[in-house]
Specification:
Blueprint lengths: L4 H11 L1 H20 L4 E4 L2 E4 L9 H34 L5 H5 L1 H25 L6 H13 L5 H7 L4 H14 L1 H25 L2 H29 L7
Antiparallel strand pairs: 1-2
Helix pairs in contact: 1-10, 2-3, 2-10, 3-5, 3-7, 3-10, 5-6, 5-7, 7-8, 8-9, 9-10
């Protein structure tokens, strides 16, 4: 009997909840670090985005600290993504996590880091080009999503199939178009759950507390679930799901 994508995702997430939560902790630090070092950011749709208009006001030292913080955050996020994909691969294939896979975590993480870094640079350029628009805080997350879609499955391709970065990007684009209905479901679900969590956190709680609650929930619960879902979509090329 075929299992639906959501059934597979929920099953995988539930059976590995402790491991996934543990590996999501670096992602929490990735979300928190830019705020703690005073990087000019704002929270929207599950992410922390740079206020490009504040960059000219930063000193050279502050700018340097901001760049280092963002690089560290991106590396921690890459580490979390890689480890969650390894957990999903192990659960889905009913195999133990082999020593050579564990030894390759650093390589996987560096490759994912470079892919995400290039995507962030593209997003920064787009943000600078849209600077001054009244709806930039809405436009930036949406543009981030559009930029991210072609690379959604690159981490899974790197970890699950052991592809090289460029081939992983090609495979990501290929999977995106061949599984477009699943990608659309993932995008819609992401927008809904992230918007609901952000909205409820900011509406029901004081502004400062609400923002942090949203960041914690996004980093430890929602983001890992969405990564698991992407891994399941990627692995659906090996099996039939409904």
């Amino acid at each position: 009997m075929k299992e639906s994508l959501l059934d597979l995702t929920i099953k995988s997430y539930a059976e590995n909840a402790n491991l996934i939560l543990f590996f999501a902790i670096p992602a929490l630090f990735a979300f928190v670090i830019p705020v703690l070092v005073g990087t000019p950011t704002y929270n929207a749709l599950g992410g922390i985005y740079l206020r490009t208009g504040s960059i000219p006001d930063l000193s050279e030292f502050s700018l340097g600290v901001m760049v280092v913080a963002l690089l560290v955050s991106l590396y921690l996020l890459s580490f979390a993504i890689v480890n969650i994909n390894i957990v999903v691969k192990s659960q889905r294939t009913n195999t133990s996590i082999k020593t050579e896979v564990l030894k390759g975590i650093t390589t996987y993480t560096v490759n994912v880091f470079w892919i995400l870094l290039v995507a962030q640079m593209v997003l920064l350029i787009v943000q600078l080009l849209t600077y001054g628009m009244p709806a930039q805080q809405i436009i930036a997350p949406l543009l981030s999503l559009l930029i991210s879609i072609p690379i959604l499955f690159a981490p899974a391709a790197l970890v699950i199939d052991g592809l090289r970065p460029w081939r992983a990007l090609e495979k990501s684009v290929e999977i995106t178009f061949s599984k477009l209905h699943y990608v659309a479901l993932w995008v819609v679900l992401s927008l809904i759950v992230l918007s609901v969590v952000d909205g409820l956190s900011l509406f029901l709680l004081p502004q400062g507390i609400g923002t942090w609650v949203a960041v914690v929930l996004n980093a430890l619960v929602l983001m890992p679930f969405l990564i698991v879902m992407l891994a399941q979509i990627y692995m659906s090329k090996y099996t039939i799901i409904s």
